[in-house]
Amino acid sequence: MNRWFIAFAGGLFGVGIAISGMANPAKVQNFLDIAGIWDPSLALVMGTALLLATPGYYFVLRMSSPKYAEVFSLPTRKDIDGRLILGAMLFGIGWALSGLCPAPALVGVLTGLSSFFVFLLAMLVGMFLHKFVFA
């Protein structure tokens, strides 16, 4: 049941990304281009996601244990350090330049376009290098 639930939730998330247009790099770049051809429609997507996720966190944080895992997988660190700021900056720069972040790139792979595969390969190399450098 656990794997089916995970597959369903992931599939539903992917459908939401596809329908919202977040898998379209041009749409994302137009959203981030506030001084040019600004497309505010993704703000509605993000706002809707926030409205749906907030009650979920409210209920999850009041549960004694998760249904499909041993423990909750929630962040434990509360501090903001240089690595967090640098990582956020790199993520934002990469998102603005490519119009992609991990989840939309995974959805975009289904289109068969090589740019999505190149992005995912670069992301996997970066993840490997991070583990190698910071391990």
* Unreliable spans: none
Indicate the radius of gyration in whole angstroms. 17 Å
SSE order: HHHHHH
What is the oligomeric state here?
single chain
Q: How many β strands by DSSP? A: 0
Query: What is the helix fraction of residues, given as a range?
Result: 55-70%
Kindly report the average pLDDT value: 90
Pfam families: DUF6691
Transmembrane segments: 41-61, 82-100, 106-129
InterPro entries: DUF6691
Keywords: Membrane, Transmembrane, Transmembrane helix
Key descriptive features of the protein:
globular, mainly alpha, 135 residues
Condensed summary:
The protein contains 6 helices and no strands. By secondary structure, the protein is mainly alpha-helical. Pfam families: DUF6691.
Protein model, in words:
With 135 residues, this protein is mainly alpha-helical. The chain has one domain (2-134). 68% of the residues lie in helices and 0% in strands. It is built from six helices and no strands. α1 packs across α5 (102-108), α2 crosses α4 (82-98) and α5 (102-108) runs antiparallel to α6. The longest helix has 21 residues, at 114-134. It starts with a helix and ends with a helix.
Itemize the secondary structure elements and their pairings:
Blueprint: H1 2-20, H2 25-32, H3 41-60, H4 82-98, H5 102-108, H6 114-134
Helix pairs in contact: 1-5, 2-4, 5-6
